[in-house]
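Mods, move this if it's the wrong board.
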Amino acid sequence: VSPYSIDVPAIEAQAPILEIGTTADRELEPPQDPTEVGWWKYGAKPGAAVGTAIIAGHINYNGVAGALGEIGRLNPGDKIIVHGMRGGKQATLTFTVTGVQTYSKKKLPWAQIFDQQVAGRLALVTCGGPFDASTGNYLDNIITYGVLDNSSGGGPITPAHS
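Not the wrong board. Structure tokens:
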């Protein structure tokens, strides 16, 4: 699915999804607006049978809370809903959270997170942990993983809620 919005009911998060790339330093470049999130266009699309679909957003920015800022509170079994387009039609995919990991940015297992050879999955990414005022950055990344519900993507396209 080419994603255009995300809904995470357990943390009451909703956001439009924009396509994003990476910086020259190979870091994800989420939208500056913390109420928007970005899908890494060089990875799998949400719902793909193989690869990691990565959606990233700020924890906060300029005093505004980020749409994905609370993903660290998700638990296995919580739902992540991605709305998008497939074959010119609206489609809604539901993912089930399988786990949440917090990694030090200095020891981030990039190859594991960005793996495009794994069975299809979703990874939500934001910052977290202690804030370093001297650099203006959080020291950790929080990654929430999810897998497509069997009833969501393998069968017919489900119409998006309007």
